[in-house]
């Protein structure tokens, strides 16, 4: 029998933790790129800007995201599906 606290709706997973908090899996897709990033266990009280900010920090791996890194977070458009 499946755990009643776990709902599996691909590609997003919701889990009710002991502290009665829902955590999410977020799939990030960046326009005009083939990049797909996943964040697991994101607390329901987190803001999307604080989560995406971690992916847009300068680093060697994010060369395909440079155009997004150059923008202010307030100028980026985030679509939720």
From TrEMBL:
Keywords: Phosphoprotein. InterPro entries: BCD1, BCD1_alpha/beta. Residues 16-80 form the BCD1 alpha/beta domain. It holds the Pfam family BCD1. It comes from the Eukaryota. PANTHER family: BOX C_D SNORNA PROTEIN 1, BOX C_D SNORNA PROTEIN 1-RELATED. This is BCD1 alpha/beta domain-containing protein.
